[in-house]
């Protein structure tokens, strides 16, 4: 467990820059004294850890030390995000859910800033809870609208036409659904009808 935490500290420092012991302790859900002991251990292991004392101080990596997973295109990063968040029955069956979450966090932290942000954005936009995939061309069209943040008209050109601001596409044990940012309601695939995907982006509603 400690080795896993040391790696997580390393990844956080290299991607976010200087952190206080309190910030690291909150992130890793341990005591600040545990973080300080970990930092001592990392220094003894030869890692270039620098500790700044006093106001504005903190812990950072020196000598531009980096260890990263690079070379992912944006669509590859998006696919990786979906892979990381997809339900895997084998993981659950073996009781490795917590280990999988730790591995996911470390992998995301090891990515370059832009790639890491793409992965995190995709994990917020798409929720996958089963292995079965509904083969419907509207799902791919809706996924593009979610990623681009553009207006969609459901049941297009009918008296029941409904404009929505799609922010999340979810696959559960029943079917695909899309979440509308305005109403926060989930609209199942069966209610979509014919789609019209706008090229005009919308501004996502602020939390709260």
Helical content, roughly? 40-55%
Largest sheet: 4 strands, mixed
Low-confidence stretches: none
Mean pLDDT: 83
The span between the termini is 36 Å
Instruction: Write down the overall geometry.
Output: elongated
Per the CATH scheme, the topology name of the largest domain is SH3 type barrels
Broad structural category: alpha+beta
- Count of domains: 3
The arrangement of helices and strands along the chain is: HHHEEHHHHEHEEEEEE
Strand line-up across the major sheet: 3-6-7-8
User: Count of DSSP helices?
Assistant: 8
How large, in whole angstroms, is the Cα Rg? 21 Å
What is the strand tally?
9
CATH architecture of the largest domain: Roll
3D architecture notes:
This protein has helices spanning 2-16, 21-28, 32-44, 74-85, 89-93, 97-109, 113-125, 137-148, and strands at residues 49-52, 58-61, 126-128, 150-154, 162-164, 166-171, 176-180, 186-188, 196-201. By secondary structure, the protein is α+β, with helices and mostly antiparallel strands. It is built from eight helices and nine strands. Strand 7 and strand 8 (186-188) form a beta hairpin. The longest helix has 15 residues, at 2-16. The model has no long low-confidence stretch (mean pLDDT 83). It has three domains: 2-61, Arc Repressor Mutant, subunit A; 74-123, no CATH class; 137-201, SH3 type barrels (Roll), CATH 2.30.30. The protein has a four-stranded mixed beta sheet. A three-stranded antiparallel beta sheet has the order 5-4-9, covered by helices on one side. A two-stranded antiparallel sheet has the order 1-2.
């Amino acid at each position: 467990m400690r080795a896993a935490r040391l790696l997580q500290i390393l990844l956080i420092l290299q991607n976010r820059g200087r952190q206080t012991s309190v910030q690291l302790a909150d992130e890793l859900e341990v005591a600040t004294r545990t973080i300080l002991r970990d930092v001592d251990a990392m220094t003894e292991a030869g890692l270039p850890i620098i500790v700044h004392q006093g106001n504005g101080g903190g812990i950072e990596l020196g000598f531009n030390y980096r260890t990263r997973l690079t070379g992912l295109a944006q669509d590859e990063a998006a696919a990786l995000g979906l892979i990381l968040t997809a339900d895997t029955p084998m993981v659950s069956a073996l009781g490795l859910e917590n280990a999988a979450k730790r591995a996911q966090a470390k992998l995301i932290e090891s990515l370059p800033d832009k790639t890491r942000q793409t992965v995190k954005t995709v994990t917020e936009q798409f929720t996958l809870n089963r292995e079965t995939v509904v083969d419907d061309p509207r799902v791919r069209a809706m996924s593009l609208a979610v990623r681009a943040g553009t207006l969609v008209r459901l049941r297009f050109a009918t008296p029941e036409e409904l404009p929505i601001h799609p922010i999340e596409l979810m696959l559960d044990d029943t079917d695909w659904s899309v979440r509308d940012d305005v109403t926060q309601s989930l609209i199942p695939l069966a209610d979509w009808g014919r789609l019209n995907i706008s090229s005009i982006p919308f501004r996502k509603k602020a939390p709260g």
